[in-house]
Amino acid sequence: MSLMSILKSSDPKCKEVKEIIKSVAPQKKDFKTYSGIPPFTNYEVMSEHKLTSSYDSGLVGTAFDYLSKIICAYYTNTELSAKEFEQPKIISFLEETKNKSILVLYKKIQNHIDFLLANKSNDLELNEEFIGGIILLAKLENLWRSGFLPVATKKDILKPTENVVYEDISSLVKNFDNVFIKNGLIKPDSLITYNPRYSANIRVALGGIDADICIDETLYDYKSTKNHGFMIKDSMQITSYYLFYLMDRIMSSTVQMQRHRIERIALYKARFGQIEYFDVKHIPEKDLKYAIFELNRMFKLGMPAQKIKDF
């Protein structure tokens, strides 16, 4: 089980965890937007959702996640390499099976990413060939995460991707560039953690936890949904990432994410180019500490009560 599985589960223990997180998760009225438009309202659609399958939607979401991070690295002084997108189990699978040609393509796009980030010019150009390579990485990751990679055929993996997927990804990337780069939310000296990781203690207890990205003092979660309305599950998800970040901080974890002093949690609605954010200082300290106490108890993390009280 992982954090996402816990948040989706109806198991009694998972329900209890969700209630703890929900007790401090911001509600619709608590969010603001950088654009000044009321949050979760009928935003102008910048990237129309034309996808016809959940498979393609998942593919677009993963590919967009990769490309947004490449864009961030291209325009900042931060370090990012293709290793960040590498899944050792995928490489092992490709090496052990007769999918050597796919492995060659996998490594080729990794080399392309590293070359691109090592040879920056004024403007980043992402052509169709490069996006196609990113789609292959996304396809392999989604198959691996869903457990279908071992039964996927070479034909399935290399099957040409519909044009609508390319168009959708390109449109989302353009929105991201406009919102984060051209509007100056990301600066050359921005502090970025591309794949925020948690301590082994928390990862093992949860069975896995994956935040999207941390930029300066804001922890973001990307949403490529066509739904512009408020979803409590989205608020709970980003809040849970913040809570476990605090728990790592209390235990003096040295994971890279702890370089940040998170002041805001935010949802980036990629199809609308809107950022819905919440200042975490508005969570009452008493409620925050209670939630941490309870999560510590539920997951048997062994955090001393006094450390939580003193935090």
SSE map:
Blueprint: H1 3-8, H2 12-22, E1 32-33, H3 54-74, H4 88-96, H5 100-118, H6 128-146, H7 154-158, H8 163-182, E2 192-193, H9 200-206, E3 213-215, E4 218-223, H10 232-250, E5 264-269, E6 274-279, H11 285-298, H12 305-310
Parallel strand pairs: 4-5
Antiparallel strand pairs: 1-6, 2-3, 3-4, 5-6
Helix pairs in contact: 2-11, 3-6, 3-8, 5-6, 10-11
Describe this structure in words.
- The protein contains 12 helices and 6 strands.
- With 311 residues, it is of the alpha+beta class.
- It has one domain.
- A 6-stranded mixed β-sheet has the order 1-6-5-4-3-2, sandwiched between helices.
- A hairpin with a 4-residue loop joins strand 5 and strand 6.
- Helix 3 packs across helix 6 and helix 5 crosses helix 6.
- The mean pLDDT is 94.
Shape: globular
Using the CA coordinates, give the radius of gyration.
20 Å
Number of helices: 12
Order of neighbouring strands in the sheet with most strands = 1-6-5-4-3-2
Integer count of domains? 1
The secondary-structure element order is HHEHHHHHHEHEEHEEHH
Helix content: 40-55%
Determine the mean pLDDT: 94
Question: Could you give the count of β-strands?
Answer: 6
Largest sheet: 6 strands, mixed
- Structural class by sheet pairing and helices: alpha+beta
Terminal CA distance reads: 29 Å
Low-confidence stretches: none
* Beta-strand content bin: 5-15%
